[in-house]
Design a protein that fits this description.
This protein has 522 residues and is mostly helical. It folds into 2 domains: 39-259, no CATH class; 261-513, no CATH class. It has 21 helices and no strands. It has helices at 3-37, 41-77, 81-108, 110-117, 123-136, 140-155, 160-164, 166-184, 187-202, 205-210, 224-254, 261-292, 300-327, 329-337, 344-357, 360-376, 381-405, 407-433, 438-464, 471-495, 500-511.
Length: 522
Amino acid sequence: MSATRRTVVRSSVLLAGLTAVSQVLGFGRDAVMAAVFGASSSVDAFLVAQGLMSVVLGLITGAMARGLIPPVARAVDVGNVAAGHRTVRVSLTVTVMVLVAGSVLMFVATKPLLSVLAPGFDAATADEAVRLTRIVLLATVFIAGTNLLAAAAQAHGKFFWSGIQGIPFNIIMIACAVLLGGQFGVGALAVGFVVGSVARFLFQLPAVTTIRLKLRPSLRLRDPGFREVLALVPPLLVGSAILNVNTMVDRAVGSAQGAGTIASLSYGWRIVTLAEVVLVTAFTTTLFPAFSTLGDPSRRAHLRRTTERVLGVTLVLITPVVIVLAIAAKPIVVLLLARGNFDARAVELTTLAVSLYAVALAGLAVREVVARTCLAVGDSRTPVLTALAAMAVNVAGDLTLGVRYGVSGLAASTSLSVLVAAVMLSVLTARRHRAVALKPLGRTVVAVLTASVVSAAAGWLVLRAVDVRDAVHALLALGATGTVCLASYTVVVVALRVPALAELRASLHDLRLRKTPPAPPD
């Protein structure tokens, strides 16, 4: 096995471990939030405030951070680290300048913007959302700096500090909710968000020192690397805007579906995407710099084989998680959130959200991997086209299913849109760049679907025998259902001889190797 793959596997395990710790704390944060504030209109207001701020962050920071990795990774790969550092400095300077201006405008225009984003809020909830938005906007520049510095470190193959950043953030949020929530209400969450964002930024500074990046302003706008970043930004910007539009439409419709609807959707999505963050995002984050070095047409076959292996392993790993989330949504919600002010109605709404959002996990996994492949070959338009199609599906679903069925309709619309995007992106990437092998992917999908049907049926029969009425019974139900689902799924996948199993075994073997031999010639 190549040294590159061993490095990717080891880095993935490190980042996945750090991310898992952060996500556990994130669940602790959400559990505390649910216990202190429940699924209430106040939590709805806080989430909408965060969403309004992300209009600035999502449109600028995310696009700049993702666009920064390919040119910097290539500069590092050829030994021209100084050129990569110049690109980072220019990108950081320009991004901060734009975000400061954008934050000021958002601060002034908060009230009219919120009247559009949450038209169903009553007057008190709307006023609270305005106040919270103006507080969380203070975090904008710190989040921008965090994302760009983390991207720079990842381009150098350094993942520790970017992986650990969520830990101090979540600890601070938990402390603010517990210590200040009773006195200051959800305002404590907004303050915790700002202070936690400052901590995330400070935790990136050791990585800056490690890669010897000097943080000083630079406006060398003719820098070739920065020009490449700018070339990638517009389509990535549109992609970020699309994601924000989906969230805003979800919340705009949800604001008129009763207090706690937005909060329940947020709690449900948070539970479901834990697996995607730990199993998929962590892996593809470490893989992206390696992908970027394979973008040359002469290495396209290698990129296609790498993408095929990653997709196979990802689908095999993520599918049993999808099954357990869909079948055992209620015990999961009861175990994680049902305490304090999180009442029976909140459990019911969040359970609906989890069970219907679970279907989106496989689509998120495929989309995440294939989007990285597209960016590696310099194509940021295809992900945007598929995101536009997904947005159309989601908005149409929100305005029909969401208005009619509330939480279940909104969650189903989101899942359907993600699956549509994943299929379209895979097909278009295969046809335009020959960077995805559709036949092997199709065989893997058929195999895991077959295993899923057997596993889901077995898990459902087990869950019927358990009465989920408290945390103890929820734990028993989840343990029994999860064990049966995983065992039956594994038996079927092994019986069908899914090729990805060999790749998974090889990756686990790589983790046990202590020495890394030279990479064979490509």
